[in-house]
């Protein structure tokens, strides 16, 4: 699936609002698309179904990717990204579960979403639900102590229907290198796999694997700003919207 | 109150499948029977408070009612952002039960003191705050509020008032009436207040909830605008609520509570009461100042 139209809508929305974490959104967009397109058992006509799978975007600043996918999948009928970050919009800089159908948790403070996903997995197991819980964290977010507290908890309680996807785009390296995250998860008694976070076939193959006995981590190799050459691995674009002058060239560069 | 916490939860856990109890590696012996009877709903979760609050929010998001229990500074001060975002902002129900109060653990030093709990939590929109003065009052307040779908903090203390009341969540009690001034006593502060005022022409209002705040009872019983506010945490936390309730009438408020400084001596909590001036004598002195005009 060519996601250039979604990337285009994200760029335009950010430019219009003069707001947004575009590069982070492009880093996770392929992962989110495959999740909602092939993996998650969710129904936009019944977004609160009891046994639906849960997805928590723990790195909430990548919200533009989530909104683009939710809109494309029919969760927000009549809505477009044109309203992003405007006064009355349901789509803010970080996702709000009380406003947006399909958003399972309000995130934005790093290190908060993943612990909630652990709690969801524990609650769903108590209900004997077949649902799975997927959380996506950033590698910078993995600096947070609450992430490692949660990794400990999930392993101890054998939450085998919980998956943690790490957007490992190395943006944290300028502050704190996370090095081999696969080894770190394994040291905490998780099952862990590496994958190419932009290869739809590889993502789908990995995420469709049946749950094992332990929670599972996917360390996704990603490129921050993927598909927009001037932004790729360019920290200047972490939290910046394009100017009117920059926008045409950025749109032209999308792949 | 800790024994009552066990008794209250042990009566509710079998009756309601929604309850999850998460212990921060305290109270484990007291809850040994519940840990054994309900291994999928009662956990000694460990010493990782921030993730515990988030995990509790995840349980709430799947339809359960979490009860999270640990010592006050680790529950409130370490986890303030989790309480703010995971529960208050998301509008989720949960119960947070602390022990230790301001300085019940006097001998353990400032790391285990938490006189800032109520003042801090008053800044979180939607957070309910209960300050029971006796074990039975905790039981009543908890049963009334625990399933109300809102985040609620219960501040347990080893200090109990000699006399308890049939309190209701969010409602104040009128203990005595008088014409010269009114006293608002919060939870265990009633212990310092009652011995000081029995022969005085003053009203005593007994509160067990800082939020929701019962403004109506205050307005009805403080027509003169002279109020002594007695709180067992940092002094003056409820002043904004009081001024708002009595506005636009002029009001003179004296405050008696824990002073805003680190308590750097040890001893017993009752010794700290004297050191910090939280005594009946202080109540009388403050009242004399208030009534001297």
Can you give a write-up of this model?
The complex is a heterodimer of chains A (255) and B (293). In chain A, α1 (4-17) packs across α3 (63-72), α2 (22-39) runs parallel beside α3 (63-72) and α2 (22-39) packs across α7. Helices cover 35% and strands 11% of the residues of chain A. Chain A has one domain (4-253): 3-Layer(aba) Sandwich (Rossmann fold). Chain A is α/β, with parallel strands linked by helices and 255 residues long. The longest helix of chain A is centred in the first third of the chain and has 18 residues, at 22-39. Chain A has a five-stranded parallel β-sheet with strand order 1-2-3-5-4, with helices on both faces. Chain A is built from eight helices and five strands, in the order ααβααβαβαβαβα. Chain B has 293 residues and is an alpha/beta fold. Chain B folds into two domains: 2-155, Thiamin diphosphate (ThDP)-binding fold, Pyr/PP domains (Rossmann fold), CATH 3.40.50; 173-291, Rossmann fold (3-Layer(aba) Sandwich). Chain B is built from twelve helices and twelve strands. Chain B has helices at residues 2-12, 32-37, 49-61, 72-77, 80-89, 117-121, 135-145, 190-197, 215-221, 239-246, 269-276, 280-291, and strands spanning 19-23, 42-44, 65-71, 94-99, 128-130, 151-155, 173-176, 181-186, 202-207, 209-211, 226-234, 252-258. In chain B, the strands form two sheets. A seven-stranded mixed β-sheet of chain B has the order 2-1-3-4-6-5-10, with helices on both faces. A five-stranded mixed β-sheet of chain B has the order 7-9-8-11-12, with helices on both faces. In chain B, β5 (128-130), α7 and β6 form a beta-alpha-beta unit. In chain B, α1 (2-12) packs parallel to α7 (135-145) and α9 (215-221) packs across α10 (239-246). The longest helix of chain B has 13 residues, at 49-61. Chain B starts with a helix and ends with a helix. The chains are: A alpha/beta (255), B alpha/beta (293). Chain A binds chain B through residues 97-98, 104-106, 108-109, 111-127, 145-146, 149-150, 152-153, 156, and chain B through 20, 40-41, 45-46, 48, 50-64, 66, 81-82, 85-86, 89-91.
